[in-house]
Amino acid sequence: MSAPAPPLSAALTSLRENIRYDLPASLVVFLVAVPLSLGIAVASDAPLTAGLIAAAVGGIVAGALGGSALQVSGPAAGLTVIVADLVNRFGWGVTCAITVAAGLLQIVFGFTKVGRAALAISPAVVHGMLAGIGVTIVLGQLHVVLGGEQQDDALANVLALPGQLISAHGPATMLGLAVIAILLAWPRLPKATPAWIKGIPAPLLAVVALTVVAVVLALPVVRVEVGGSVLDAISLPILPTSEIGGVIVGVFTVAIIASIESLLSAVAVERMRPGTPSTNLDRELVGQGAGNTLSGLLGGLPITGVIVRSSTNAAAGARSRVSAILHGVWIVVFSVALLGLVEQIPMAVLAGLLVHIGAKLVNVGHMRELHRHGEFPVYVVTILGVVFIDLLTGVLIGLGLALLMVLRRVVWASIEVQEPRSEGGTWHVVVEGALCFLSVPRLSRRLAQIPEGADVVVDLVTDYLDHAAYDHLSEWEERHRLAGGTVRIDEVGTMGLVARRESTAGGPGDRRPGPVPRFLSPWSVWQAQHDATYGQGWGHGHSEDDGHEHSDDADPILTGLREYHRRAAGLVAPYLSDLADGQAPHAWFLTCSDSRVVPNVITSSGPGDLFTVRNVGNLAPVGGGADDSVGATVEYALDTLHVPTMVVCGHSGCGAMQAVSREVDADTSLGRWLGGAAESTSRNRGGHPVGEHARAGGWGDVDQLAMVNVAVQLDRLARHPGVAAAVDEGRVRLVGLFFDIATARMYVLDGDRFVPASTDRLGAGASSTPAEPTTTAFPVADPDGART
């Protein structure tokens, strides 16, 4: 056995393997980074050379030291508002000192391993902050695009914009609008467009093309003023002599915002390329901090991980951090040798680029997502705070509102009283959420609306019920009963009156299970729970669902149907709507008709996942004749649905296997059907390996036969011509399962034995036919303490 390659040798080997991907990717990122860096420097009121210095340092230093393989760092739009404010308040030299201090603070963050903590900040606040920055950039740069000058603040920009629109004229406006048009149109090129044309970065194309137009036509527009070479611009930062408190706030603001943006970008890029090495978030903070420290010392802008450049890097095919480092090298070469070209770029062109960048920070997809999760108010408040006050205040306001909304969800309950549709009908009280002492006054007001003597159903959909709310609801219930009314507590949540009473009735040694969701509970549990507590039939009585009175006595099906429509139909409807035009199940699932085996529960599946076939004994007679029902499902699953998996699932205590052991009369329908299990019985008696392992594991005779029966039915499936061909071609795999009812645990057939599905050591045999058993052997022992 050869010794492992030394680290240096391994690194050189990796470099040789990846350079053919990283080199072209670095050139693409370089071409995108140059115009973006210049534009961000303009928006930050910083020297243009500061943008190029930051881009070079971000690529080389953060790229080499950071914890993300594909992230590309540089000056970012997310910091433009902060930097512009710092430059206006303290001057450029002190701003560079703030960047150095923020970098050192980021290094401290990394070494103290707080990287993951930054991800705990509400996405609504982060997206709101970025959107607020985007709005601020757009409001300011629109004036430049329209041939004017941006105002001092966002409100002034808004007030001046109508006049600017009326007076818009001149070549600057045409150049700025042309940039925006190119950036919007480029991603929408026809599919027939050659790939090499689509591969040209849109920002580079827009800036170069319109700069050439301005030069050729000698347009009278304001152009970029670099103010000297990059080497001349390198200077040490200036230490502050006043307003130390404001400087400290600036340091923490830059460090925190830059860290959050970098970490979020790193996580996003990692998701873009499956198989990319996982990001070390703490190392990423150290790399970003080192980059900011050096960038500030050299007179550059603050840097962060930038999603635009990083996503471009990933899309261009980069394999390692070498791409980011090389892109920084190309920027150094450009900055030293070709800086004169930069001074030909019209300011309106960079302004148009910034307007597009700012607009993209306002992401409609994020708005929809946050609206679905009820966090849109946090997003809006953060935007308004960032735009019309300042970034730090806006973020703090957003965080405060997010915390208040979380607190409200935790301690606030929704309480709704529904009047009956007809006189003398049943009143409904729906309580959802966490019912605690803060909600007792509202609960009291709502319950006071119900007249004495009325029939009342209380739907208690609670996951928390504190003592104050418990006492109040119990006392009201008793008073209402004494006044001649009826009260039925319908508990849907995991904690309510019944649960509280049961939890206190048994004493400290009582270990009875707590409430479970109704979709996991038999009718006999949740429809009878109220009866066990109050002495009357819970789930019985009157219903107002259709305006008529119903009696649910001895009719659990109708009660279950009404429960489905009240609780589940609305939740499952979107999924069923998507499936209305057809199905594409993931598995053909053959199991026993036994009522205790519920396929969707034991597989955690939902509508559209399983093509289920059930019969007595989970038999697979696929030969034809009287057994065509099962064969038809096999052929339909293979030829029409193209399922990738076929499952046979047996279970413990199987009545069919017990009947086979008793040799049922062959003249009955059941006897003729169970003749299909004769092969299983014969092979079990002959010492089938599955049965032998089951016997050694302590399973009873009936369960041994049930396990052998699963293996035999899989054999029969494997001999079906269509199944055999699909298995040989790798289109289908066969899986055997066994459900132990007493412990509610699943076992998977792995070669010639069943192993717990909870183990993480399942081998290839778990997904192959037992006709070709694997040699992998696992002990039939459940680490969670199930029966062996």
UniProtKB/TrEMBL annotation:
Keywords: Lyase, Membrane, Transmembrane, Transmembrane helix, Zinc. It catalyses: hydrogencarbonate + H(+) = CO2 + H2O. Residues 20-381 form the SLC26A/SulP transporter domain. Residues 541-553 have a biased composition (Basic and acidic residues). The keyword Transcription does not apply. It is found in: Membrane. Its main location: membrane. It comes from the Bacteria. SUPFAM superfamilies: beta-carbonic anhydrase, cab. The keyword Transmembrane applies. It is a multi-pass membrane protein. Residues 764-777 have a biased composition (Low complexity). Catalyzes the reversible hydration of carbon dioxide to form bicarbonate. This is carbonic anhydrase. It comes from Actinomycetospora aurantiaca.
